[in-house]
Amino acid sequence: MATSAYPAIQDQVFRPHPYIVGGKIVVLLASGIGILLAGMTHAAIIAIPIACALIVLAARVAYCELTTFLIVRGDTLLLRQGWIFWREEQIPLHRVDVLTTQSLPGRLFDYGHLTITRDDWVLTVRNLGEFRRLQEEIARLQRIPAFWRA
User: Fold this and answer.
1) Rounded to whole angstroms, what are the CA distances from 127 to 42, 56, 65, 101?
2) How far apart are CA 141 and CA 95, in angstroms?
3) Domain edges within the chain
4) 12-144: what CATH class?
């Protein structure tokens, strides 16, 4: 864990669940390679663009989900995305509404979706791992009175 500006506070880092991301990538790659091999075997030219599209989609899923970090620092959330081009958004918790959703498999494997809304702005981070710990941390931070947030 990285440290924050305050020595007593540790940043908490949350990432997408590795098994969910890995499963998506494996299914897309296996489908793309399978369609490519079937197209080469049966000389079907239409299979090549479909296979390439699935392989490119697998690469996009890998890039988008493996480079997403949600960091709880003080009473703000930092959403970092990207390796080459970084995008970082600071989200103060006292100015937004936070909605957490979990499905039955999400409860079993401890992952879920976080939706942050403010006015007309909506941000959804899907398949976050260690979701119970994230829910507890957000609930703890939202109980802090506004007077102490400075």
Assistant:
1) 38, 21, 9, 10
2) 12
3) 12-144
4) mainly beta
